[in-house]
Specification:
The chain has 93 residues and is an alpha+beta fold. The protein has a single domain (2-89), classed as YaeB-like fold, CATH 3.30.2310. Helices cover 32% and strands 34% of the residues. It has three helices and five strands, in the order H-E-H-H-E-E-E-E. The protein has helices at residues 2-12, 20-28, 33-42; strands at residues 16-18, 44-49, 57-63, 69-76, 82-89. Strands 1-5-4-3-2 form a five-stranded mixed β-sheet. The longest helix has 11 residues, at 2-12. The radius of gyration is 12 Å and the shape is globular. The mean pLDDT is 94.
Length: 93
C-alpha cells in the first residue's frame, strides 16, 4: 500500500512527531520511542479513518523490538510529516 510506504519513508527520514498523549500511552504499556518507530517500519496500514475534519488517520499494526504487536494511530500533519497520535499493544484474545 502506497500510504504504508509513505509513512515508513517519512519515519526513516526522521520526519515524524510523537504527541505527548502517545508518549503517555506508550509509557503505560512499557513501549519506547524505538518500539514505535519499529512498529511503523515493520508494519502495515490495517485501517484508514476518513471521517475526521482534521484529515485521514491511519491505524498501523507492527511489532515492537521485543516482538509485541503494537497499533500506531497517526496522520499527516500540515507540513507533511507523520504525527503519531496514540499507540497501544494489541491484546491477545
Amino acid at each position: 500500500m502506497k500510504t504504508s510506504r509513505e509513512i515508513q519513508n517519512l519515519v526513516r527520514g526522521g520526519r515524524y512527531e510523537i504527541t505527548a498523549y502517545a508518549d503517555e500511552e506508550a509509557q503505560e504499556d512499557n513501549v519506547f520511542p524505538s518500539d514505535i518507530t519499529n512498529a511503523i517500519l515493520t508494519g502495515t496500514v490495517v485501517k484508514k479513518y476518513i471521517d475526521d475534519s482534521r484529515g485521514a488517520r491511519y491505524k498501523i499494526l507492527g511489532n515492537t523490538l521485543d516482538g509485541r504487536e503494537l497499533f500506531v494511530i497517526c496522520r499527516f500533519n500540515t507540513i507533511g510529516e507523520v504525527r503519531i497520535i496514540t499507540v497501544f499493544i494489541k491484546e491477545k484474545i
